[in-house]
């Protein structure tokens, strides 16, 4: 194949927010979201095998009454977000820069103890309180989402 000899439209999209087809589940705004083995997104859960982290849900979408792929959801793939520190993880200033793993769709932990599957979702930027008033960490997800 020859090199370009004229302009070529690549249909660029910034890739910060992407729409994905959703499994037959309900996903809440702010949830950690992953592709499942069938190629549809669902909420993260360490007990589910073969997930690939894609980002954080921008909206709540309920597809429980539909088939996989009937609805789509928008996911943010870059930036930093505050998630709850899972029970037993007491974040401190010494945790800054550590990688975290998804425990549930809104809880993270810095250690792998107790996790059936170890899904890294980002690095700790700082400690913060969640919007629910719970102990949490701000996590930068850049370069961890598929």
Low-pLDDT segments: none
Helical stretch count? 0
How many angstroms does the end-to-end distance come to? 29 Å
What value does the Rg take, in angstroms? Answer: 17 Å
Portion in strands: 35-45%
- With strands numbered from the N-terminus, the spatial order across the biggest sheet is 1-7-5-3-4
Largest sheet: 5 strands, antiparallel
Rounded average pLDDT: 95
The geometry reads as: globular
What is the helix fraction of residues, given as a range? Answer: under 10%
* SSE ordering: EEEEEEEEEEEE
Backbone structural class: mainly beta
Counting structural domains, the number is: 2
Number of strands: 12
Describe this structure in words.
With 146 residues, the protein is mostly beta strands. The chain has two domains: 17-76, no CATH class; 80-140, no CATH class. The protein has no helices and twelve strands. It has strands at residues 17-21, 26-27, 32-35, 41-43, 52-57, 61-62, 72-76, 80-85, 99-102, 107-109, 120-129, 135-140. The strands form three sheets. It has a five-stranded antiparallel sheet, with no helix packed on it. The chain has a five-stranded mixed β-barrel with strand order 8-10-9-11-12.
